[in-house]
Design goal:
- The complex is a heterodimer of chains A (343) and B (345).
- Chain A contains 15 helices and two strands.
- Chain A has helices spanning 2-7, 20-42, 49-57, 60-74, 82-97, 115-139, 144-162, 178-181, 191-209, 211-221, 223-228, 233-259, 270-280, 292-311, 318-342; strands at residues 167-168, 262-263.
- Chain A has a two-stranded antiparallel ribbon.
- In chain A, α6 runs antiparallel to α7 (144-162) and α9 packs across α10.
- Chain A is globular.
- With 345 residues, chain B is mainly α.
- Chain B has a domain at 69-268.
- In chain B, 70% of the residues lie in helices and 1% in strands.
- Chain B is built from 14 helices and two strands; from the N terminus they run αααααααββααααααα.
- Chain B has helices at residues 2-41, 58-67, 69-83, 91-107, 112-136, 141-159, 181-184, 193-211, 213-223, 225-230, 235-261, 272-282, 294-312, 320-337, and strands at residues 186-188, 191-192.
- Chain B has a two-stranded antiparallel sheet.
- In chain B, a hairpin with a 2-residue loop joins β1 and β2.
- In chain B, α3 crosses α12 (272-282) and α5 runs antiparallel to α11 (235-261).
- Chain B is globular and about 85 Å long.
- The chains are: A mainly alpha (343), B mainly alpha (345).
- Chains A and B meet through α7, α11, α13 and α15 of A and α6, α12 and α14 of B.
């Protein structure tokens, strides 16, 4: 009798009911539809197909960053270094590519490596930042927020030193701009957007269908239990930090190629945006909850809100306040919806 | 035989703990002395020891202390917050917003005292908001204060009129020259009011931490919040109060910065939260809370000011971010290596 009672599955597992995760995702779909509807009313021409495509394609970098940040957030860790890594990778790629001893100007001289080698080395350096993060957080058990803020400064600081606080954009080989200019002609869909779509699909399958992906949730829900049940938490966190930095590195390479320049102030504040889209998508810092799909929805919600603010001719200074308020409302609304559902 | 062995091992362990505790007590002073020593011997070929332009000349020291006013004002309260196990990433933005509000009021004809009081009330309101999000609505401190960071910064940017980068004299209005008096006019030993107010803030925070029940409660909550609550401490109220104190001192720091620069720059407080975290970590406060010292944070604050301003006299300014980041990571490592009890997850 007692055993039977114990074996009775708890409510969320019964057939026909949604899991909390799908519930929040659906909830955010609803929010997206409402926000989009309001935007269509308030902003002229908002409903046009081109504008809707732009909502996704203009935010490809935030979505790519969001993948790594989401996985880390699910395990209960922050990664605030991604913005710095973007700047560092872009600057390094440019520096490695620039011709050797081509001019008197220090900023025009680089190492003269072929493009492929330069990109590879720059990505390695990006993963080096991830390795520093992983060492401090997974091995030394230092709070992730402090470490990643430190490595953010380290990465951006190195970029500033290499560019002497400005940018490097001269004496670059023609091959440097190829990646950034590839795309489907006549549309706003560039290579970067295709990369983003592929990465989102891979991340989605990785999250739902692999053992690694499912274990991320276990680590987030209860790190001690995860360790005791034989999961090497250190190794998983290390892999995730390397992944997050690699994704930021790829973003940095694509952005540098698009602008044909390595700018030390590139991607200022992107770490905050990546965190915001993950939070908007229902990812919770306190324990193994959230999804890449939710993050994607969050990114689109944020882009609807910010672009309709621009469409309403609000000054760009509104962006900060708006992002803060939207995140705050989203966190409260999601918690309220979950509480309602559980009672 | 075995017992003797175990005893000797225990003695060894005790000794290593004692050594570690001693290192923890003194290392920060050694670091400060080393940094001061290094900066005072570079450029010796150009300037005399203690001469004009030397790192240890009176005018350099006074200049260093004047630029250190905001962090000295703020980091005491920040230490108390970290002792209680919380964090406030919005202090930089709170400082910027206060600076903008203060200078806007001065520009629009307020006199000093009303502007000061109103700005401090704004600071208290910001602290109250942070406290509400973290303590009442129970949003994770990092996320809650990142949200308010964004909101405060946005508001500071919105107050500044379009086309201007800060609140300053324009064609229609001129900023009164006396806005400088608070943070630049010498009152005692060549140092301005703002510095002595910062010293007063430090004294108050040291007393609060060491001598009052608020300090004890903060340490208790940081050590073990559940135990603290079970023994009758109102953790929500205490945390809320500490957030308000931090907001108050952030506003005071913002006023000092606005007065020093004689304009209201909406970006003037950027990275202040990092400087505060570095100062607190160098001062030996544990990440997880529970122990720490306001007085030692001040040594940490002086170290970070020496590094950032002292370094700039030797190498170009674009090294600053890298230097600050490195100091932060070094502080993290030292803090972790010297931690008394290592908790394994």
């Amino acid at each position: 009798m007692q055993i039977k009672q114990l074996q009775k599955p708890s409510k969320p597992l019964t057939k026909g009911t949604l899991s909390d995760e799908s519930f929040i995702t659906l909830f955010m779909v609803g929010v997206l539809i409402v926000v989009f509807g309001i935007a269509c009313f308030a902003v002229p021409n908002f409903y046009k197909a081109q504008n809707i495509i732009n909502l996704v394609t203009n935010n490809w970098f935030i979505i790519i960053l969001g993948i790594g940040v989401t996985f880390l957030l699910i395990t209960g860790n922050f990664d605030m270094s991604v913005g710095g890594v973007i700047a560092l990778t872009g600057v390094l790629a440019v520096y490695f590519c620039q011709g050797r001893n081509v001019s008197q100007n220090v900023l025009a001289n680089g190492l003269g490596l072929p493009y492929g080698v330069a990109v590879g080395l720059a990505l390695l350096c990006a993963m080096g930042v991830g390795a520093i993060n992983a060492f401090f957080i997974a091995r030394l058990k230092v709070p992730s927020i402090i470490v990643t803020l430190g490595t953010m400064m380290l990465a951006r600081g190195t970029a500033q030193v290499i560019t002497q606080g400005a940018q490097r954009n001269t004496s670059l080989p023609d091959s440097f701009g190829v990646l950034g200019s590839l795309g489907i002609p006549g549309t706003s869909i560039r290579l970067a957007v295709i990369v983003m779509i592929v990465l989102i699909l891979v991340a989605f399958i990785f999250e739902k269908k692999t053992v690694f992906g499912r274990r991320i949730y276990l680590i987030g829900a209860n790190p001690v239990a995860a360790r005791l049940s034989g999961i090497n938490v250190t190794r998983y966190l290390t892999a995730l930090y390397l992944l997050s930095s690699l994704l930021a590195g790829i973003t940095g390479i694509l952005l540098a190629s698009e602008f044909k320049a390595g700018v030390s102030s590139r991607a200022l504040g992107y770490e905050f945006d990546a965190l915001v889209v993950a939070l908007l998508g229902g990812v919770s810092i306190s324990g193994g909850f959230g999804s890449v799909l939710g993050m994607f929805l969050g990114a689109i919600i944020l882009s609807v809100v910010t672009s309709s603010a621009t469409g309403l001719l609000l000054s760009p200074d509104w962006q900060f306040t708006l992002k803060g308020i939207v995140t705050f409302i989203a966190i409260l609304a999601q918690r309220f919806a979950l509480d309602k559902r559980r009672n | 035989m075995n017992i003797v062995k175990a005893d000797s091992i225990r003695q060894k362990l005790d000794r290593s703990t004692a050594v570690r505790a001693t290192i923890k007590q003194v290392y920060i002073y050694v670091v400060l002395a080393t940094i001061v020593f290094i900066f005072s011997i570079v450029k010796l070929d150009k300037v005399e020891f203690f001469g004009r332009g030397h790192f240890l000349s009176p005018d350099s020291i006074i200049n260093l202390l004047r630029t250190a006013v905001p962090i000295l004002t703020l980091s005491g309260a920040f230490t108390l917050l970290m002792i209680s196990g919380y964090i406030d990433l919005s202090v930089g933005s709170a400082m910027s917003l206060s600076a903008v509000v203060f200078s806007w009021m001065i520009l629009n004809g307020f006199s000093f005292l009303p502007a000061l009081v109103i700005t401090l009330i704004v600071g208290i309101a910001m602290g109250f908001l942070n406290g509400t999000l973290v303590m009442k609505l129970r949003i994770t401190p990092v996320i809650a204060t990142l949200v308010t960071l964004s909101i405060f910064k946005g508001m500071a940017l919105l107050i500044v009129p379009d086309g201007l980068s800060s609140i300053k004299s324009s064609a229609e209005k001129t900023m009164p020259a006396w806005i400088n008096d608070y943070a630049r006019k010498e009152v005692l030993f060549g140092l301005p009011w703002a510095f002595w107010v910062a010293i007063l803030a430090i004294v108050i925070m040291v007393i609060i931490q060491k001598k009052t029940i608020l300090g004890k409660y903060a340490a208790a909550i940081g050590g073990n919040r559940l135990a603290a609550e079970l023994s009758g401490i109102n953790a929500v109220l205490v945390g809320w109060l500490i957030y308000i104190i931090v907001g108050f001192f952030a506003a005071l720091a913002g006023i000092a910065r606005a007065s020093y620069m004689s304009l209201g720059d909406p970006l003037s407080g950027d990275n202040m939260e990092l400087a505060c975290i570095i100062a607190v970590l160098l001062g030996g406060t544990a990440f997880s809370g529970g122990e720490g010292s306001v007085a030692k944070t001040m040594i940490g604050a002086i170290i970070i000011m020496c590094v950032t301003t002292g370094l700039m006299t030797v190498i170009p300014a674009y090294w600053q971010t890298l230097a600050t980041g490195s100091v932060l990571l070094i502080a993290v490592v030292m803090n972790q290596l010297l931690a008394q009890d290592k908790v394994k997850v």
